[in-house]
Amino acid sequence: QVQLGESGGGVVQAGGSLRLSCVASGRTFSMYAMGWFRQAPGKERDIVAAISWNGGRTYYADSVKGRFTISRDNAKNTMYLQMNSLKPEDTAVYYCATSSRPFATVQYDAPRSYDYWGQGTQVTVSS
């Protein structure tokens, strides 16, 4: 089992920045691909960004390219999402997730590819 916990959410004005963190515990050696998803009220849970085990490969949704940066520090069992130039449409609950399969073998933009999920952290961007 792997436990994930997000932090760093909050309320920010449009154009501002936030940095989300996701700390993993438990059987962390089993983690491979990791990702950030978000879900706004009444909408599906969508991929924001994903990253491979060593950080060598990343994926970003078109809506966040150039504004968000995903990274991870395996020594600290922590993944990050730096969010800059935030927009009101970025408002959502943000979830981190991890797969027990390598990045190259999963459909990393699909929630079903991930085995463990955090509880989510709210990000609210005011206009």
Account of the protein in words:
This protein is globular. It has strands at 2-7, 10-13, 18-26, 34-39, 46-51, 58-60, 68-73, 78-83, 92-98, 116-117, 121-126. The chain has no helices and 11 strands. It is an all-beta fold. The model has no long low-confidence stretch (mean pLDDT 94).
Poorly predicted spans: none
Approximately what portion of the residues adopt beta-strand conformation? over 45%
| Count of DSSP H/I helices | 0
* Strand/helix succession: EEEEEEEEEEE
Number of strands: 11
**Helix content range of the residues, please?**
under 10%
Output the structural class: mainly beta
- Overall geometry: globular
Radius of gyration: 13 Å
- Termini separation: 40 Å
Question: Kindly state the mean pLDDT as a whole number?
Answer: 94
The major pleated sheet works out as: 7 strands, mixed
Brief descriptors of the model:
127 residues; mainly beta; seven-stranded mixed sheet; four-stranded antiparallel sheet; 0% helix; 48% strand
How would you summarize this macromolecular structure in one to three sentences?
Helices cover 0% and strands 48% of the residues.
Topology:
Elements: E1 2-7, E2 10-13, E3 18-26, E4 34-39, E5 46-51, E6 58-60, E7 68-73, E8 78-83, E9 92-98, E10 116-117, E11 121-126
Parallel strand pairs: 2-11
Antiparallel strand pairs: 1-3, 3-8, 4-5, 4-9, 5-6, 7-8, 9-10, 9-11
